[in-house]
Amino acid sequence: MDKLRKLFKKNDTVEPADEPTISTIYSKKVQQSASKDEMWLTTNEASLMGAEEVMARLRVDCRSGLWWKEAELRRQLIGYNEFCVKEEDPVWQKYIEQFKNPLILLLLASALVSVFMKQFDDAISITVAITIVVTVAFVQEYRSEKSLEELTKLVPPTCHCLREAHVDTFLARNLVPGDIVYLNVGDRVPADIRLFEGIDLAIDESSFTGETEPASKVTSPMLKTNGHTSMRNIAFMGTLVRCGNGKGVVVNTGEKSEFGEVFKMMQAEEAPKTPLQKSMDILG
Asked: Where does this protein have coiled-coil stretches (predicted)?
């Protein structure tokens, strides 16, 4: 009996659970806070809201900025402030890939048959036609890729940002919604930013909207918006500060920004076919 009592007593013993540390509690709270969908805004929504309302929605204090741990959790949720660009293949490989078109392969076979049948005029004509079509397609694709490369160069590598009450210069790819960014003359805007402070701030948006004159910026909410030019309280990613200075809160980064939407459209857009290519498609 004594042995049984000891056995039951041993089994009834409950080991105390590990006490959660302060950092664990903070991490969980921040993760729950950052994972809520209602925190995120579109650039258009931010333009229609007051600056204080935007910062309350993004849960940031304009005097101290985000905590580094909070910023890192947000970055894990939405990714880096950059664009996904495919790795470039060698130029010769891109040219060779143009021959993978079934119609091109069929024409090559026809040219080969013409050679065997000693119909050299036909073989030369077919080969010249193939070379023209393939070269034109290659040039169009190459130019399209170069255009995308030029777009990515409009995004600055670094920016001035407020984190934990300290203004520092760090990589723009690490920006997240809620970051407080400082803008000065000559700066490229690193993300879509809802301005809450500005002194004679004018931004060159020609690379984005096509407007040649710098756009004067305000900090008050817009009553309504009708296109990008009407969002006068937003500094768009990739634009250039021409005059004055200002501060703002990041509302969208990377492919979620307005600039990112244009980038994705250009990636998805196919180069228009030449009349010769269209004729060959009809024949195929």
From this structure: none
